[in-house]
């Protein structure tokens, strides 16, 4: 390939070879003045030929402008703006080319335009040559015309002479690459270099690509506009239009930017609010969980409260029933005159369950069994921490639990220091719960089974104890008959104080067997105890107060003689008739005071009279004989019980302070206490019995004058 100079000369030669029907392509740039002159030259040189205006439009100039502003336009609207800008540029070029065409038409030139969009002008021209089979292309001359050697004088009005490029469509066009690289470039680049030369005053072409930006576009446009015929009104208008357009775009961009910023702010605000809502939501969720837990807890509490309420209601109903029954019982008892209506209080009588009885006797363990009589077995037991004796009555008979409970409660109210205390009962199992006396029965002492024989003083004091109890029973209203008095029913406490047990049992059991018979006690004559039974009772079948006197007489004879029952009365009678009492007296009891003992022997025989009318009166005759013995007997009893506590009768001792009482008072539980002690107990907030631990019906205290006198009497002895 040759130099540019050679290419120009070749082109000159070929101008002449342009056919009339050939289209002459004129490469036009943006410089209107130059374009005008170039067109003028071309129409002059190629008159008769049709002319096509070729313009390489560079959209990338606008793109580079947008790329340079990337940090500003981060949002979609920039694409719209760029697009609008591009479209506007393309349209403007079209309009410009159309204006050129309009200038050519009056001169009879057939003109057209070819607009090719290409970022690179060289490539654009090469593409145009190849695609449109261009044979003749006219371009403005290079700025450095001195290199080209073109005579400018032949082309007046134009700074440099145009270049005519003649191309053979079959050969040269196909070798467009070669043309591009070696021949065409310098010529083509003129289009831009000339622009650049004028706008940037000779700066290198590189700046076009490297420093192209929105500002340079504006600057270039302005400079171009200034340099290219400022008086050209159309261009001025076009420039003004473009400037206003640009301003509009700028304003729109600024607005969009502001919008974007506002949207960003809104987004940040929404994110902030969202965060807050999320925080609130998690807090609410936690609160909901807590609430759920609380609800569950409360539900459980409500359920247990309801359960409690139900059980309280049941208890209340039960208590109401019990209260109604109690009222009914009181009414019944009042009717029969069995209750002392003058009494200001009612002693609470505990009713035990069968479970408790069962537990107390270790499931009725045989080792806990004390004995067995006609009316059932007796067990030792530990009930509510108290040692007790439990009598299991036979379950036969039609007596119902309520009747049983009534009768037992009546019996429990009969209290005396020489009567075994009935602590409570179990209607379910028909059992009676007594205080437990650990010194055995008189029967066992008289039999001397593993025991030291009782001294005569103790024997006589036992007789006085029995007499005291019988006087109490017979003086009760109504009169109470023991009906089964015998040594096994005389129990001894640690101080050898005698207490009568099983009071009213025959009556209770007989009621069970024959509830219709309520007034009398029927004698059961089928056993060995008959020796103690009033012979009249054996005939009539009915017990009387004198029946107990008869039994007492037999016991007294036993105490004096220690002999078996058989022939006991007869032997004593004989001994007295023989005035030889000593022959029958039990000297294992010590040296009996003979004179007083003879008195007792006569008294005992009188008690054993077959006819009740011949028997002595308990108070006026029996007690008067026994009373003088008390001093001697009590002293002896005290000797036997060394401890101070044991010397005093147990019922003289306050259960709380364990000392002989000075001011004995009866509490609602029926027990007698030292006044100061029981008041202290109640004042300290207790409302239960110190003995039974059961709730007291009231806290009233009644002075026990009888006991007080007895204590005084005992103390004076
Ligand atoms: N509260 C008690 N404390 C200590 N032992 C007692 C108590 N009650 C009864 N006993 C003992 O139990 C034994 C049996 O007594 P229970 O009254 O059942 O029969 P009994 O008196 O021998 O004959 P029956 O009752 O048939 O006339 C008594 O002999 C006595 O030793």
UniProtKB/TrEMBL annotation:
GO-annotated biological processes: protein ubiquitination
UniProt enzyme class: transferase
Assigned keywords, A-Z: ATP-binding, Coiled coil, Kinase, Nucleotide-binding, Transferase, Tyrosine-protein kinase, Ubl conjugation pathway
Entries under Gene3D superfamilies matching the protein: HUPs, Phosphorylase Kinase, domain 1, Transferase(Phosphotransferase) domain 1, Zinc/RING finger domain, C3HC4 (zinc finger)
UniProt xrefs under SUPFAM superfamilies: Adenine nucleotide alpha hydrolases-like, Protein kinase-like (PK-like), RING/U-box
Coiled-coil segments on the chain, per record: 246-280
Keyword Ribosomal protein: no
GO molecular function, one term: protein tyrosine kinase activity
InterPro entries: Kinase-like_dom_sf, Prot_kinase_dom, Protein_kinase_ATP_BS, Rossmann-like_a/b/a_fold, Ser-Thr/Tyr_kinase_cat_dom, U-box_ubiquitin_ligases, Ubox_domain, Znf_RING/FYVE/PHD
Chain residues that bind ATP: 391
Record domain Protein kinase: where: 364-630
Reaction equations catalysed: S-ubiquitinyl-[E2 ubiquitin-conjugating enzyme]-L-cysteine + [acceptor protein]-L-lysine = [E2 ubiquitin-conjugating enzyme]-L-cysteine + N(6)-ubiquitinyl-[acceptor protein]-L-lysine
Chain ranges of the U-box domain: 647-717
E.C. designation(s): 2.3.2.27
Role noted for this protein: Functions as an E3 ubiquitin ligase.
Name used for this protein in its record: RING-type E3 ubiquitin transferase
Organism this protein belongs to: Medicago truncatula (Barrel medic)
Gene that this polypeptide is encoded by: 11424175
């Amino acid at each position: 390939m040759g130099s540019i100079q050679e290419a120009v000369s070749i082109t000159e030669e070929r101008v002449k070879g342009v056919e009339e029907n050939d289209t002459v392509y004129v490469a036009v740039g943006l410089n209107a003045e130059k374009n005008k002159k170039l067109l003028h030259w071309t129409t002059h040189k190629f008159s008769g030929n049709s002319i096509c205006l070729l313009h390489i439009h560079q959209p990338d100039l606008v793109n580079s402008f947008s790329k340079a502003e990337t940090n500003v336009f981060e949002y979609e609207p920039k694409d719209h703006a760029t697009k609008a800008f591009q479209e506007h540029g393309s349209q403007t070029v079209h309009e410009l080319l159309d204006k050129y065409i309009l200038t050519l038409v009056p001169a009879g030139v057939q003109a057209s335009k070819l607009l090719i969009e290409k970022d690179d002008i060289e490539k654009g021209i090469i593409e145009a040559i190849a695609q449109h089979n261009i044979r003749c292309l006219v371009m403005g001359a290079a700025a450095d015309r001195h290199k080209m050697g073109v005579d400018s004088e032949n082309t007046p009005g134009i700074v440099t002479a145009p270049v005519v490029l003649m191309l053979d469509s079959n050969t040269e066009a196909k070798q467009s690459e070669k043309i591009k690289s070696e021949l065409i470039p310098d010529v083509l680049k003129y289009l831009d270099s000339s622009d650049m030369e004028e706008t940037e005053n000779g700066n290198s072409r590189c700046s076009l690509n490297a420093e192209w930006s929105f500002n340079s576009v504006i600057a270039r446009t302005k400079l171009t506009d200034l340099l290219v015929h400022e008086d050209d009104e159309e261009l001025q208008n076009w420039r003004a239009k473009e400037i206003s357009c640009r301003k509009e775009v700028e304003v729109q961009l600024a607005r969009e930017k502001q919008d974007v910023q506002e949207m960003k702010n809104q987004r940040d605000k929404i994110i902030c609010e969202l965060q807050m809502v999320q925080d609130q939501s998690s807090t609410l969720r936690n609160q909901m969980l807590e609430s759920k837990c609380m609800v569950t807890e409360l539900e459980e509490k409500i359920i247990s409260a309801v359960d409690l309420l139900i059980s309280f209601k049941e208890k209340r109903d039960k208590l109401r029933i019990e209260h109604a029954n109690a009222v009914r019982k009181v009414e019944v008892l009042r009717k029969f005159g069995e209750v002392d209506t003058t009494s200001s209080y009612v002693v609470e009588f505990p009713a035990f369950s069968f479970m408790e009885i069962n537990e107390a006797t270790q499931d009725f363990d045989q080792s806990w069994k004390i004995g067995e009589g006609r009316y059932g077995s007796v067990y030792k037991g530990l009930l509510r921490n108290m040692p007790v004796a439990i009598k299991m009555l036979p379950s036969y008979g039609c007596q119902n639990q309520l009747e049983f409970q009534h009768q037992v409660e009546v019996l429990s109210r009969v209290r005396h220091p020489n009567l075994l205390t009935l602590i409570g009962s179990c209607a379910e199992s028909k059992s009676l719960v007594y205080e437990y006396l650990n010194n055995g029965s008189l029967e066992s002492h008289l039999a001397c089974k593993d025991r030291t024989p009782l001294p005569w003083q103790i024997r006589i004091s036992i007789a006085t104890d029995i007499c005291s109890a019988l006087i109490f029973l017979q003086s009760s209203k109504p009169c109470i008959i023991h009906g089964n008095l015998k040594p096994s029913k005389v129990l001894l406490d640690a101080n050898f104080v005698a207490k009568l047990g099983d009071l009213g049992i025959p009556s209770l059991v007989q009621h069970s067997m024959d509830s219709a018979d309520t007034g009398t006690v029927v004698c059961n004559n089928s056993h060995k105890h008959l020796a103690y039974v009033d012979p009249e009772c054996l005939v009539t079948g009915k017990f009387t107060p004198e029946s107990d006197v008869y039994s007492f007489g037999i016991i007294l004879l036993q105490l004096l003689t220690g002999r078996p029952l058989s022939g006991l009365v007869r032997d004593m009678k004989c001994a007295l008739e023989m005035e030889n009492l000593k022959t029958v007296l039990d000297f294992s009891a010590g040296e009996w005071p003979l004179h007083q003992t003879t008195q007792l022997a006569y008294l005992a025989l009188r008690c054993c009279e077959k006819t009740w009318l011949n028997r002595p009166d308990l108070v006026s005759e029996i007690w008067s004989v026994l009373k003088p013995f008390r001093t001697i007997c009590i002293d002896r009893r005290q000797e036997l019980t060394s401890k101070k506590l044991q010397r005093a009768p147990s019922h003289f001792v306050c259960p709380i302070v364990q000392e002989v009482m000075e001011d004995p008072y009866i509490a609602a539980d029926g027990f007698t206490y030292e006044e100061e002690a029981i008041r202290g107990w109640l004042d300290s907030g207790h409302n239960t019995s110190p003995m039974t631990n059961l709730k007291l019906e009231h806290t009233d205290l009644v002075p026990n004058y009888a006991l007080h006198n007895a204590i005084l009497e005992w103390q004076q002895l």
